[in-house]
Design brief:
Layout: H1 12-29, H2 34-46, H3 50-53, H4 67-76, H5 80-99, H6 105-108, H7 120-134, H8 139-149, H9 151-170
Helix pairs in contact: 1-2, 1-9, 4-5, 5-7, 5-9, 7-8
């Protein structure tokens, strides 16, 4: 996650997300994949400033709040880097809401919403796949491809991370 308000990896909150993600992914899913786990932990830390959740903007500078608008921005992008970043963000956005706050999906995709007919899991998998294809041959491209292939598993892993942080909060 790139942002001027990004939480540095040395920050205690980032380290907490890393530890919880490593624990949940290893104990619940049996996934010991440091680059993938690091990416997912970075996603959580990166979305702490709420502005990062809606960092994609329209030409007038307004935040894009619907997945359909984010996908349209990706398709309309003039350059590969912007297209890749938009698709990656759609993957991140859909993984975050699907895994961490699935109860919010009804509101995000509610009646009258441009996303009413969007399947967040399918769109997230597709967007990560497209971002991986636009990052072919790079380590990030490999991680994005694994996120596409294992989207549902990673979403479940994020729900386990949430459960762990709620234990801390209530403990």
């Amino acid at each position: 996650m790139e942002s001027s308000h990004a939480i540095p990896e040395s920050h205690p909150l980032h380290r907490l997300f890393r530890g919880l993600t490593e624990y949940a992914f290893m104990t619940e899913l049996g996934i010991g994949d440091p680059p993938l786990v690091g990416y997912v932990a970075g996603l959580l830390a990166g979305f702490v400033p709420s502005s990062a959740v809606w960092r994609l903007r329209d030409p007038q500078g307004r935040p894009l709040t619907a997945v359909t608008a984010m996908v349209a921005a990706a398709e309309a992008a003039d350059d590969t880097a912007r297209r890749r970043e938009c698709h990656r963000h759609v993957g991140d956005y859909t993984l975050f809401w699907t895994g961490v706050y699935p109860e919010a999906l009804a509101k995000l995709r509610g009646k009258g919403s441009p996303d009413a007919l969007i399947d967040y899991q399918e769109q997230g998998k597709r967007s990560y796949y497209l971002a991986s294809a636009l990052s072919a041959g790079t380590s990030q491209g490999s991680i994005l491809r694994r996120l596409s292939d294992q989207f549902e598993l990673c979403a479940f892993g994020l729900s386990c991370v949430r459960r762990e942080w709620e234990k801390i909060r209530s403990g």
